[in-house]
Structure prediction request, 116 residues.
Amino acid sequence: LEAAQAMERAAVMFCEANPNEKLDDHLTRSRTRFAKAAVSCPPNLVWKVWLAGGKMELTAGRFDVARTLFHRASDNVPEKGRSAVFLEHARLEEFVGNMELARAILCKARNDASSD
Prediction:
């Protein structure tokens, strides 16, 4: 997971230094590392891989892929991490302009993860 995130940061820094480059074109290696991390990590931690991958895809502008990864994270997250997944998913929906869904997710988070 750390290698995937390091590669993502390197791609972001490269694209910031070279504005003509598209970030999405430079995330292939990071995506490969995220996939390897998802396969090799313990089942109780795979949700963190999906969440981090979703954040990366959100940064790359691939909103549908990010949404799918956030859904996978919510399917695998233990109770104590649910609020973080709900919050990231709500942020995504707000970012893409789907305010009603963002509010619904936050309401669900308030009801389901009220202890956090």
